[in-house]
Write a structure and sequence with these properties.
The chain contains 30 helices and 24 strands. The chain is of the alpha+beta class and 815 residues long.
């Protein structure tokens, strides 16, 4: 939950707050704020903490969203105050920062904050027009599902899809390649390019036109992964295994996860998202990396679902689309889809292997299994790997049990294919291991993430597990406040009671895929047990779920829900209308529908306003209606209605979230910066960027400049040895880190001190007058004006120039 405030914390870092300043004198503080919607009045209550007993003459100034309020009533005594503020126009809905100040009878002015020193906030309740529109769309969609004409059109569309599966797949492939050719991406890297650091050191060519806004919450995409990719592209030579521009020791780029960075090694074969950088211009390569997870997962998942139920290609395409446009996928830059792509390909290849009649076919599908497993391992993010892998493993076992007596399976051919797959996976992963084992060893020894304790689950809450109900508002429309982090709040919409009903009813009625359905059921039950109750530590270790925090496992349950809907058959429920015991079953269905709506209401009504500030009674009504109808339909085996409503809600949540833009053609350092950073022979010096944060210096490496600090996957041993870091401070720096340098007052009055204010940050505070910059290995120091003013106090630094606000210093070598 604390990660919801990541953007807020980062904004503090970027603004260069001086943490060493003494706390100001506090005259009073605010206890609570309430807003009256009808009268546009703000009621503020607070307490005095200083001064004499005569507070009656205290005056106040209140401002909200650049609007100054008029004090229409105030009550003051020696200890407390209460003021009523009137605004001419209604305040915008959501959470607003309130700027409040008080002037004492003696004429002293004080800013008013909450008791903990933070800026006060006011929640302005509002019913938005878009909530009414969404309610209207949902009600219209529900009404249309009962229209015979619409039902007939749906059947015609399903039949047409069934007859044109290959043509549709080819059309999807051609469309996705067309997007790559144009250079379309959803990356928010323009945030970095438009920031002060990039403007001071780099130039980007190509159109910056886009549809929809950039997303600052995707900092790990635009501020970390994309700069890592560009650091590989702009390195000399390009695509090294060890990027020498990232830290004194360099960084092994094969250890980067997600879609990865381009590395000239054999293991790059199993990182298809990076292929474009080796063969295509930068714009098309970035587009390929963005488009592959979405369209690849869509086609692969459609293929798998068609293998489960070949007679339902239309519904399967809708389900695959639903999974790929889910808020969780969009808000995490489609990375969950990339993690799903390879297990799904491996599972589909395994099914085809079991159906093989020729050795050539068996070897082909076996090779596909081996390649997919290698690519899946190289995504290198355990929470998604383990949970999706568990689901696929259970489904695979269930499939084998269902087909154990099938005469069509030729086990010798299957064994040959699996052997080849094992060889291919071993060769690819073995080559990667040989290239990266030193970096892996360093990472395993880190405090974070290497030595995290085994998680046993049981930490999930109802509100957070089912936060997907908020996503139609919180993802695209909730991004204008710093208290709702869209990736963290993104999820899927689940109806757990209906899911368990389908599992239980299906196990009693299904014949052909009963064990496959059993595997899906076991996973769903285990997921909820792990989330809400927890499991013994030995089980967490055995299943590897000890590496999966409960707030990072959503994608696996989302996939399980899609597969459950795929396996659901209307035939399960046909006997329902022929039995005399219809009313008890109808009553059970009604209970499930009502219970599902109660769950939706509880989540939305109790969700804290600082997480979901733009809630309304109309929005809650949308999901009450949605839950009742979807749960009722599902308990009767009807999936088309729920799929349609889920598609609508997912599109509303995600369609405008990521920008639709052209990727830059080139990103490179400016000639002026190259001159400042080079010696007389044109060789680039290593640079230390003093800014108080870690993403900024990472951009130096992105344009090909050797750096000391940035975002590093593991600690730079040489740096800390040269700085003679005390042994007691090693746990502070021994982590994946945003390595930041800043000027200030080091602890214990030394020349420098280290701290880790957040899990992924390492901040080195230096005293420029005492600190020996030569120990860092940097020959150039650079900073913006605020930090540069302090750096000028160093006897070892010589100012050599300034370019676009960035001040450059050379380091005087030791005598």
């Amino acid at each position: 939950m604390l990660r919801i405030f990541l953007i807020f914390f980062l904004s503090i870092g970027f603004n260069g707050i001086n943490w060493a300043k003494d706390a100001p004198h506090v005259y009073a503080f605010i206890e609570n704020i309430n807003y009256e919607t009808g009268s546009n009045h703000l009621h503020i209550n607070g307490r005095f903490t200083a001064g004499d007993d005569n507070k009656a003459g205290t005056t106040f100034q209140i401002q909200a969203k650049d609007k100054r309020g008029e004090i229409v009533n105030k009550n003051i005594n020696s200890e407390r105050f209460s003021i009523e503020v009137k605004f001419e126009d209604p305040l915008p809905g959501g959470l607003l920062k309130i700027k409040a100040s008080a002037v004492s009878p003696a004429g002293e002015r004080f800013d008013l904050h909450l008791a903990d020193g933070t800026q006060p906030l006011a929640h302005i309740p509002k019913i938005y027009t878009r909530h009414w529109a969404l309610l209207g769309i949902i009600l219209t969609a529900i009404a249309l599902t009962y229209s015979r004409r619409i039902q007939q059109s749906g059947l015609h569309l399903a039949n047409w899809t069934q007859q044109h599966v290959k043509g549709i797949a080819a059309g999807i492939l051609i469309f996705s390649l067309s997007l790559v050719l144009i250079g379309i991406t959803g990356s928010s890297f323009r945030i970095a390019l438009e920031g002060p650091v990039a403007k001071a050191i780099s130039t980007a060519s190509g159109s910056d036109a886009r549809i929809f806004k950039l997303q600052s919450s995707r900092g790990d995409e635009w501020g970390i992964l994309t700069p890592n990719i560009l650091a590989q592209v702009n390195h000399t030579p390009p695509f090294p295994i060890i990027n020498t521009n990232l830290g004194i020791d360099g960084q092994n780029m094969g250890i980067l996860g997600m879609t990865g960075a381009p590395v000239a090694q054999w293991a790059a074969i199993a990182r298809p998202a990076t292929w474009g950088y080796f063969f295509l211009p930068l714009r098309q390569a970035q587009s390929w990396q963005w488009q592959l997870p979405f369209w690849g997962c869509l086609l692969a998942l459609w293929w798998l679902l068609n293998l489960f139920k070949p007679q339902s290609a239309g519904r399967n395409l809708a389900l695959a689309t639903l999974f790929c446009i889910a808020p969780y996928a969009a808000a995490w830059s489609n990375w969950p889809l990339y993690f799903t792509l390879f297990p799904v390909l491996a599972f589909s290849s395994f099914i085809k292997l079991l159906e093989s009649k020729r050795i050539t076919h068996a070897l082909l599908w076996g090779a596909g299994i081996g390649y997919s497993i290698a690519a899946w391992v190289l995504t290198l993010y355990p929470p998604w790997m383990v949970t999706i892998g568990t689901l696929c493993a259970l489904l695979c076992i269930g499939l084998l049990l269902d087909r154990r007596s099938s005469p069509e399976i030729q086990f010798k051919l299957a064994a040959s294919g699996l052997t080849l797959g094992l060889v291919i996976a071993t060769v690819i992963l073995g080559s990667w291991w040989l290239d990266t084992r030193d970096a892996i060893e360093l990472t395993q020894k880190t405090v974070y993430p290497g030595q995290r304790t085994t998680l046993t689950g049981g930490t999930g809450s109802i509100l957070w597990t089912f936060r997907g109900f908020t996503n139609a508002e919180a993802i695209t429309f909730g991004g204008d406040t710093p208290w709702t982090n869209q990736p963290e709040i993104s999820s899927y919409i689940w109806l757990p009671l209906a899911m368990l009903w389908l599992c239980a009813y299906g196990l009693a009625r299904e014949k052909r895929n009963r064990c496959l359905l059993l595997g899906c059921t076991i996973f769903i039950v285990y997921y909820f047990v792990f989330t809400f109750i927890g499991v013994p530590e030995w089980m967490a270790r055995l299943t590897l779920w000890g590496r999966a925090p409960t707030n990072r496992t959503d994608v696996s349950l989302g996939l399980a829900f899609i597969i459950l809907l795929c396996l659901t058959r209307r035939e399960w429920f046909i006997p329902l209308t022929q039995e005399r015991s219809i009313w008890p079953r109808k009553a059970a269905a009604a209970i499930i529908a009502i219970g599902s709506s109660c769950l939706a209401y509880a989540v939305l009504a109790e969700m804290p306003v600082f997480i979901f500030p733009k809630n309304s009674i109309v929005y809650i009504s949308v999901f009450l209606v949605f839950s009742i109808f979807c749960a009722w339909w599902l308990t009767h085996g009807k999936t088309s209605g729920p799929i349609a409503l889920l598609l609508i809600l997912s599109l509303v949540a995600t369609f405008g979230f990521n920008p639709i833009a052209k990727a830059p053609k080139k990103v490179e350092m400016t000639p002026e910066v190259k001159m400042l950073a080079s010696d007389e022979n044109g060789n680039l010096h290593r640079i230390l960027f003093v800014s108080g944060e870690g993403m900024g210096p990472h951009l130096f490496a992105a344009v090909g400049l050797p750096t000391i600090n940035g975002v590093l996957a593991y600690p730079q041993l040489t740096l800390w040895k040269r700085l003679q870091l005390p042994e007691k401070d090693w746990p502070i720096v021994n982590r994946y880190q945003h390595l930041a340098f800043t000027t200030g007052k080091p602890a214990n009055y030394e020349s420098y001190s280290v701290s880790s204010p957040w899990m992924e940050w390492v901040v080195v505070t230096i005293d420029p007058e005492k600190f020996d910059f030569n120990l860092t290995g940097a020959q150039r120091i650079t900073a913006f004006d605020e930090q540069a003013e302090n750096l000028r106090k160093s006897p070892l630094l010589k100012e050599i120039g300034k370019h676009k606000g960035l001040v450059w210093f050379s380091v005087t070598p030791p005598r």
